[in-house]
Amino acid sequence: MIVLAEKGISEYGNKLISFSKNEQKSDEILKLNPRGQVPTFRDGDVVVNESTAICEYLEFKFAEQGATLLPSDAATRGRVLQRMFETQNLMKTLIEGVAYLFFHNKPEEINQDELNAKKKAARTELERWEEYLKAEGTDSYIVGSQFTMADVFLFPLLAFGVRGNLNLSSFPAINAYYQRLEQRPSIQETWPPHWKEGPGTDFCSGI
């Protein structure tokens, strides 16, 4: 949805689903994606699944409209693509590691040594992104001076962590980056509605 906003596309329908109600396995979703996974995207007769594929489809189709999220310069595009795919490491440690363990177990069932190890891995990964942003310089994005697809992939992971009480004070470059992007119109327009209703669950404290 950030890509749609960056491209200036506002005439589209979207539907929020509830994972707690297992709505991603509904007949409606399974017709679009037999894996029962979201997001899924339909443009007329074209159905595209997987976040990266959807984002690249939109960038290609609307290349002349709105922000350019994948630079035409080969070297810069290579860096953007690298950072895009590197966000999978943050997904693996923060979401599939810490959050998954927290949300799929009762508090009394969580092995604290395992949780601490996963939090340590997430912190190590965040330290890497801190260094990336420091190297880019003040007021930069994750690749240079322009907002790109790499930022589209990175920011939501950070936002998910912050909602889980991730303290960014230990990561000044990430914190400055987060505070700046949080105010970006495309971010504001696509902020999850239920996030505005109240705080999230405290699963990232101590990272």
UniProtKB/TrEMBL annotation:
Pfam families assigned to the protein according to its UniProt record, in alphabetical order = GST_C (PF00043), GST_N_2 (PF13409)
| Domain GST C-terminal per the UniProt entry, residue ranges | 73-203
Q: What is the lineage of its organism?
A: Eukaryota, Metazoa, Spiralia, Lophotrochozoa, Mollusca
Task: Give the protein name, as stated in the record.
Answer: Glutathione S-transferase
- What InterPro entries has UniProt attached to this entry? Glutathione-S-Trfase_C-like (IPR010987), Glutathione-S-Trfase_C_sf (IPR036282), Glutathione_S-Trfase (IPR040079), Glutathione_S-Trfase_N (IPR004045), GST_C (IPR004046), Thioredoxin-like_sf (IPR036249)
Please name the GO terms that the record assigns under molecular function: glutathione transferase activity; maleylacetoacetate isomerase activity
Q: Which residues form a coiled coil?
A: none
Q: Which SUPFAM superfamilies does the record associate with it?
A: GST C-terminal domain-like, Thioredoxin-like
User: What are the recorded Gene Ontology BP terms?
Assistant: glutathione metabolic process; L-phenylalanine catabolic process
Pinpoint the GST N-terminal domain residues.
1-66
* CDD domains associated with the record: GST_N_family
Superkingdom of this protein's organism: Eukaryota
GO terms for cellular component: mitochondrion
Please name the source species. Pomacea canaliculata (Golden apple snail)
